Amino acid sequence: QANQGPVFDFSDEQLAVRDAARDFARTYLLPGVIERDETQTFDRELLKKMGEMGFLGMMASPEFGGGGLDTVSYVLAMEEIAKIDASAAVIMSVNNSLVCWGIEKYGSQAQKEKYLSRLTGGEIIGAFCLSEPEAGSDATSQQTTAKDFGDHYLLNGTKNWITNGNTSGVCLVIAQTHEEKKHHGINCLLVEKGWPGFSVGRKENKMGIRASDTHSLMFSDVKVPKENRIGEDGFGFKLAMSTLNGGRIGIAAQALGIASGAFERALDYARQRKAFGKTIFEHQAIQFKLSEMAMRIEAARLLILKAAVLKDQGKDFVKEAAMAKLFASETAMWVTTEAVQIHGGYGYVKEYHVERMMRDAKITQIYEGTSEIQNLVIARALI
Ligand code: CAA
Ligand code: FAD
User: In this protein, which residues make up the domain named Acyl-CoA oxidase/dehydrogenase middle (predicted)?
Assistant: First the structure.
């Protein structure tokens, strides 16, 4: 368990947050998790409840309705939510570590009052829009443009794969203003859903995290007031990268939750299921799978906590966040695949949850920077 050991001595507050998230996940998220995956829906009421419980603005300042909690508390909660429902975890991760954090860290007082205070309690949900049809890993190649017209920008282009694409009320949109300056000409704009020229594409029919809605967003001459630019002119790419550093800790914790949820189910199953006159746990091949799972999960947890602690201490954590995200997502994929194996045929059907977890795990190796991109970030930090 994460509350033991000499390395991380959690405070009472951190443990209380973790326990509240665990109770919430078991009480509200577990019932219906299979159905939500099948129907690709996430109840508004559930989202509202997550907001009321404080899970949507955990690290934001109380001045704007946030929980004022540290990153360690956030990752502890994230693991518990993702253990049960990885879709809920990604909704939470985008709202907390990309949208709320981006606005709180770099936004103006007016932007915080207008948007952050509504995002923290779930009155509206946020989306973070960096990826495009031709700009995923290669994020500096932004094709979406924000032309400067003095008191406003005109926004044109398409964003792809946007989590909370349809449910969001406000979006952080990254767009190119001064092409000749390359990534130093990019801006980040706060764009409200429903503004003229803003349309939402069809919902993506995904392999995993199916209850989380993913859409393309289209902008055609959307007029965005200048006061909705976050930070100085040309700061948008830096903002995106810096926000993603923290986001990667959140996604790492999501991956950890998926892995630990699948591990717990596999361990329980192995102790009950009998084959050849004994429990399958008593077969060493199965025992060693479980010991390897436990070890990799613990290593992932330590990397995540290290990145979170460095962030909370205001130290550089770029490399550690990339390591945590890379290791935790690879762990999630491996652990969930082995959890299905341990369940045999039962692992291949929905009632036992592990097949969903295996599908959910895959995305953690792709979004917020693929595993290859995390390797690139780590390698660059080495030199
Ligand atoms: N932190 C802070 N700044 C960073 C940074 C980081 N992790 N990574 C890059 N930068 C800065 C660089 O310092 C540089 O700025 P200066 O020129 O001012 O020094 C600028 O960004 C450009 O960096 P590079 O020269 O290294 O650019 P590159 O094109 O060679 O590579 C990259 C950049 C690291 C590959 C980057 O484009 C990247 O991270 N790609 C992955 C994109 C990504 O993670 N997308 C996630 C979308 S959101 C999402 O997915 C949400 C979700 O699913 C739920
Ligand atoms: P590409 O960049 O085309 O990569 C294809 C392959 O090439 C990958 O394996 C990649 O690792 C590899 N590759 C690329 N460049 C290199 C390199 N230099 N070295 C080695 N290998 C390389 N984006 C948002 O902005 N906001 C969101 O809310 C969001 N949510 C998402 C939700 C889902 C369900 C999905 C599927 C995606 C989401 N994304 C979001 C987009 C996601 O961040 C991108 O899909 C991801 O960054 C990869 O970009 P790409 O899909 O264009 O792949």
Answer: 127-222
> Looking at this predicted complex, what is its ipTM?
0.99
Is the distance from CB of 77 to CB of 89 less than 8 angstroms?
no
Tokens 């932004």 label which residue? 142
User: Of all helices (H) and strands (E), which one includes residue 158?
Assistant: strand 152-163
- What backbone phi and psi angles, to 5 degrees, belong to 350? -70, -35
C-alpha 99 chain-centroid distance: 11
Q: What is the pLDDT of residue 8?
A: 76
Q: Ligand 1: which of 90, 140, 363 to mutate, most ligand atoms within 8 Å of CB?
A: 140
Distances from the Cα of 105 to the Cα of 184, 235, 270, angstroms? 19, 13, 46
Q: What is the pLDDT of residue 4?
A: 47
Active site residue 368: yes
Binding site membership of 141 for ligand 1 (Cβ less than 6 Å): no
Question: How distant, in Å, are the alpha carbons of 73, 93, 152, 169, 191 from that of 125?
Answer: 21, 11, 24, 6, 12
Determine whether the shortest distance from the Cβ of 162 to ligand 2 is under 6 A: yes
Burial 8-46, CB ≥16 within 10 A → b, else e: bebeeebeebbebbbebbeebbeebbeebbeebbbeeeb
Question: Which ranges of the chain have pLDDT less than 70?
Answer: 1-7
